[in-house]
Fold:
Amino acid sequence: MDKYKKLASNTIIFAIGTFSSKILSFLLMPFVTRMMGTGDYGAADLVQQTVNVLIPIVTLAVNSAALRFALDKAANKSDVFTVGVRTTLIGFVIFLFFAYPISFITINDFRLGDYILLIIAFVLVSSFRQLCQQFVRGSGYVKLFAVDGIIATATTLLFTILFLGPFKWGVTGYIVAIIASDACSIIFFTVTAKLYKYVEPRCIDKSIGSQMLKYCAPLVPTVILWWIINVSNRYMITYFIDSSANGLYTAASKIPNFVILFSQIFIDAWQLSAVDEYDSKDRASFFTKVFRVYSGGVFAVASALILFCQIITKILVAQSYYESWKYVPILIIATTYSCIVNFLASVYMAEKKSLMSLLTASSGAITNVVLGFLLVPKLGANGAAIATVCAFLMVFITRGTNTRRYIKISYKLPLMIFETVILVTQSILMLYLKEGILLYAVEAALFAVMILVNIKPIMELVNLIFAKFLKRGNNK
Structure:
C-alpha cells in the first residue's frame, strides 16, 4: 500500500476510536463539574496524575517497548507480550511494598493516604490496559484498537454517570469509573485479539527480554520528566495556593486537550508509518512533508481554540469554574508545542534511541521546575502555564537540533515563529481586552491569517492522497 494512503487509512481508523474516547472527557465536564466541587475535582485529578506517573515506574514503561518491538516484523510476538506481562506483574508486586510509605505523602490539604487502595487498584488495572493497547496496536490490529476506544467511551460514560449520580461516590466514584472501564478494555482485548495465546509460561528468547528492557529503561525517567513538565505545576498550585485553585487549573487544561485530541489521532497512525518508512531513500522528504502538514494543523486548531475559549468554557463547565478560562490561552500554546515535540519523538522511536528522549526531556523538566517555583507564587496559576510553555519550547529546541543527526527534517522556522507570534498575540488580546465585538473581530482576523499560511501544505497532501487513489484506480 502507498505510504500516504496507508497513513491516511490508519489515521481514519484511529480517529474512529480515539475521537470518541477523547471527546468524552469534554462532554462529561458539565456533569462532572456540577457533581464535584473545585476541591474534589482537584483531588481527583491529583490521584489520576499520581497514578499516571507511577505506572511507567512500576512497569518500567514496558508498554512502550511492547509497541516498538511488536512493530518489528521479525519479532516473536509471544516473546514480546510475555515479557510485558511478566515485567508488569513483577513491578506491581514490588510496588506493593512501597504503597504504605507513599500513603503518608501530603500536599497542603491533599493526602494520598485517603486514596491509597484506589491508587493500588488503578495502577494494576491501567498498567495491563496500556500493555494490551500498545501490543495490539503494534501487532497490526488497528481496527480492534479503534473499537476498544468506542467501548471505553461507552463504559466510562456509563460508570461515571452511575457512580457520581445515583451512587454519589464523589472522588472515589470518579476514579472507580476509570478503573472499571479499563478492566472492560482488558477483557475485550483478551477475547478478541486472543491475547492469552501470546502468553508463554515457559522459557522465552532472553535476547528479546534484554533488548526490550534496554529500550524501555530510559523511558522510565523520560516519562517522569514529561510528568514533571505536564503535571508538577498542579502540585505547586496546590502547595502555594490550594486544591480549589488546582481544580480551576485542571478544568482549564481540558480545553487545550482539543489540540491533543486531533494530534493524538494522527500520531497513533504516524508512529506506524514512521517505523515502516524509516529506511526508505526519500524519508527526509516524507518526514518533512508530513511534519509541515501536522504542525500547520496543530497551530490552526490552537488558534481556533483561543478564539472560542471563553465560549467553550461557558458550555463545558459549571458557573463556579468559569474563571478557569483565564488560564486557557497560555495552556493552549504549551499544548501546541507538546504536540510538536511528540512528532519528533517518532524519530527516536524508529531509531530506538530512547536515551535521547530522556536527555532532551530533561531540559524541559528543569526549565519547568525552576520557572514554576519562581512564577507560581507571583503570578498564580498563569505562572505555571507560562513555565510549561517555556519548558516545551526548550524541549523543541534541543530535540529539533538533535534529531537532525538522524534525519534532515526542514522545520521552516521563520514560519513557525510567525505562527507562534499569532498565538501569543491572540492570548494577550484575549486576556487584556474587554470582551466584545472588537475583541472577537481581531481574534477572528488573526485566526484567518493562521488558516491562510497553512492552506498550501494541507492542500498539497490532500491532492497527493487523491492523486494516489486516482492512479491506483486507473491502473486497475
